[in-house]
Amino acid sequence: MYTHHPAQTHPDGVPFSRSTSSHDYQHVPRPVTAMSKQYAPGDYTAPHSHVRAQLLYATEGVMRVSTEHGVWILPPRRALLIPVGVVHEVHILSELSMRTVYIDAQVAAPYGSDCKVLEVSRLLRELILALLAEPIEYALAGRGDWLAHLILSELTAADTVPIAIPWPRDRRLVAVCSAIMNAPGSRRSIEDWAQDAGASARTLIRLFPKETGLHYRQWLQQVHLAEAFCRLDRGEGVAAIAYALGYASPSAFSAMFRRILGRTPQHYLSEWRAAD
C-alpha cells in the first residue's frame, strides 16, 4: 500500500516526499501512475525496461532516449511513449524536470508495440501535474481516478510526431551515426565520415538503408529535425537554426521541415508562443 504524506512541494505542486524510484510505480493497483524526478546535466539511466508502458516526459530540459532500434531527442513539448518491456537508456542533456507516467500493460495495449513521439498538449501537461499531486495509490472513483482516465483519453487523441532516428548495428555505421549525433551541424561529407570509419563512402551509402531503413540524407534529416525542435523550444530563430544545421538558407531548411512534417517551423513557434 502506498501512502501520500503531505509535504513541501515543487512550484508545480509535486510533493518533494513522493518516491523517485520507478520500481515503486510498477505494481500499484491503478491503471495510471505518475512519478516526478529531477536530473542534472550528464546524468545517465542505464538500459532497463518496465512491466508498464511509460510516457517519458519532462516539463523542463532535454533528454536523449535510446533503444536498440532508435534514438529520440525530447524537448519539453515532446514525450516518448515506450511500450511494455522495451529496453531503453536515457542521457540527460540539460537540467531536467521529469514528470513521467506509467500505464498498466493491458490498458496500454491499444497504443501498439512501437515507441512513438507524442505532442504534449497544454491540457495533457496539466493533467500529469495534477495527478502527481494525488497519492500514488489514489482513491478509485475519486479525483485521481478521473485524472488518470483523462490522461488516457488525451494520449489517445495526441498527435504523433514522425521524428525518429533509427539506429544501426554495424560497428562502422554506429561510429558514423554517433559522430553525427554529437555534431548535427557538421558540414562533413559522407566521404569524410567514411574515412574516419575505415569504410568506403559506397559501403556506408549501402549500409544506411540496410541498417536503418533510411537513406543517408533521410537519416540525416531526422537528426536535423530532432535538433531543430530542441532549438525551437529554446526560442532560437529559424534562420539561426538553419545555419547551425548547415543549410544554405532558412528557406531551404523550412522546405525540408515542411516536406517531412507538413508544417513549417514558424508554425510551431507561433503555436507554442500562443500556448505559453
Briefly, what is this?
The chain has helices spanning 105-108, 122-132, 143-157, 171-182, 190-197, 201-212, 216-233, 238-244, 250-261, 265-275, and strands at 32-39, 44-48, 53-56, 58-60, 63-66, 70-74, 78-82, 88-92, 96-103, 116-119, 160-161, 165-166. The protein is 40% helix and 20% strand.
Question: What this model shows, in words?
Answer:
By secondary structure, this protein is of the alpha+beta class. It folds into two domains: 22-157, Jelly Rolls (Sandwich); 168-274, Arc Repressor Mutant, subunit A. 40% of the residues lie in helices and 20% in strands. It is built from ten helices and twelve strands. The protein has helices spanning 105-108, 122-132, 143-157, 171-182, 190-197, 201-212, 216-233, 238-244, 250-261, 265-275; strands at residues 32-39, 44-48, 53-56, 58-60, 63-66, 70-74, 78-82, 88-92, 96-103, 116-119, 160-161, 165-166. The strands form two sheets. Strands 1, 3, 4, 7, 9, 10 and 11 form a seven-stranded antiparallel sheet that branches. Helix 8 packs across helix 9 (250-261). It is globular, with a radius of gyration of 20 Å. The model is unreliable at 1-11 (pLDDT under 50). This is Helix-turn-helix domain-containing protein. It comes from Janthinobacterium violaceinigrum. Residues 171-271 form the HTH araC/xylS-type domain.
